[in-house]
UniProtKB/TrEMBL annotation, chains A, B:
Residues 15-151 form the Nudix hydrolase domain. This is NUDIX hydrolase. It comes from the Bacteria. GO terms for molecular function: hydrolase activity. Gene3D superfamilies: Nucleoside Triphosphate Pyrophosphohydrolase, Winged helix-like DNA-binding domain superfamily/Winged helix DNA-binding domain.
Length: 235, 235
DNA sequence: CCAAAAGTGTTAAAATTACACCCATGC
DNA sequence: GCATGGGTGTAATTTTAACACTTTTGG
């Protein structure tokens, strides 16, 4: 179907189109300091042809919302998300010029593994989250909101571990917080905080190869639960 | 259109239907103690004919999501919501037997004014939130989630005032907290907490007619903002 | 030895909690 | 007066924050 030529009257009578998009965050060490990066895809059709946009697509009839988001994310980054949660349903009347469009947006945290950042192409590219270009549709607004949620949730939820691998040093965790929140944290107090969390358990191994005293490695044993895992059954 | 006879194959090829529903909360003094109540509507067609359900309906092409929720709420309770925020988009595959259904659910707080609770009918009835009947679809799960969000947000957001009128006593605010959180709070400490909030300003008037010392009335001057009002532009 | 991060100790300030007590009103 | 909720005072406890200091490694 091509709605491109629908006039306003016709458009108002069409049922709203339903799409799933995902805001994907990863941490990348940007020469010493860590920073948030996200992959975007280039639009290959009108509207907004050529602009960068959030990965997404129409909702197929055979997938749950979350499954659709996860598949989309995998197709874009080649990664399985460590964390995936619904962000918001955007449904303003003027989001797309040609058709009434409702987008259910998810946000995801992935760990920067080996092949991931390499999987760039003409139409998939990673950008620093604080210096995005002018995106298609209302995607700049959506990313802002996702950033707000990420920072917010970082302050109380066990989210930082989703950026990291199986084992990690406490300083790495602190690095995640500092990168996301954009401010420095006292190493001593931060350490005590983490040590008081039952879900963070010390291992017997230490990270070797650093140029200073080898830090102990830890593991996170809790669930990477979105919310208190709440919308349990149906969504 | 009637999808009632669609078989599974046909169903999977239909585009998902999109509906808006709203979880509406009000506080009702239940003989001394206050308690949460919510209005439900009786289903007048299959599926789930006769069961109670959240008020809602299909998304028309000419309304924003929030407008649709507000209209729906008004049609049900006759009230304008003091607080209205998106709750979640539910899109599990098996939510409705006949058709793939995606519901964008809002939650609302209304103040129990004059005509509201009177507006009951054969098909609209108020229930105590902690003793709901078996609802249609997955609506029991949705209400549970809404209750969780309400209690959660009550602990940090300025939400309680949306249950109350223009001016109120500090004890009334405490009553809201106690009813929603389900536990008693120290009057002295609670009072100090509120007094330290700049948005709560004392008035010159006192509530008369009580059988004890007349308490001072206060006013809330802040915005009843969902989140930090964030999804600003588009949704 | 020196630099630098890992890790421990200590103390002041601030927020939370518990509870004793006085005040003002209707009956 | 007296019962009752409005309103104030205060001290113990816990949490947060700031920063000095010791330990262990690589060079």
């Amino acid at each position: 179907m091509d709605f491109g030529s629908a006039n306003v009257t016709e458009r108002n009578q069409l049922p709203p189109a339903l799409a799933i998009s995902t805001v994907i965050f990863a941490l990348r060490s940007d020469g010493g300091r860590q920073a948030l990066w996200m992959p975007l895809v280039r639009r290959i059709r009108e509207p907004h042809l050529g602009k960068w946009a959030l990965p997404g697509g129409p909702l197929s009839g055979r997938e749950s919302l979350q499954d659709a988001a996860a598949r989309n994310l995998n197709e874009t980054t080649g990664l399985a998300p460590r964390y995936l949660e619904q962000l918001y349903a955007f449904g303003g009347l003027d989001r797309a010029a040609t058709q009434r469009l409702v987008s259910i947006v998810y946000w995801a945290l992935v760990q920067p593994g080996e092949a991931d950042l390499a999987r760039e192409s003409e139409n998939v590219k990673w950008f620093p989250a604080d210096a995005l270009p002018d995106l298609a549709f209302d995607h700049n607004t959506i990313v802002e909101y996702a950033l707000w949620r990420l920072r917010n949730k970082m302050e109380y939820g066990p989210i930082a571990f989703s950026f990291l691998g199986e084992s990690f040093t406490l300083a790495q965790v602190r690095g995640v917080y500092e990168a996301v929140l954009g401010r420095e944290l006292d190493p001593a107090n931060f350490r005590r905080h983490l040590r008081a969390t039952p879900d963070i358990v010390p291992t017997d191994t230490f990270q070797q190869g650093g140029r200073h005293r080898p830090p102990r490695l830890y593991r996170y044993t809790g669930a990477a639960s979105p919310d208190p895992g709440f919308p349990r059954r149906t969504p």
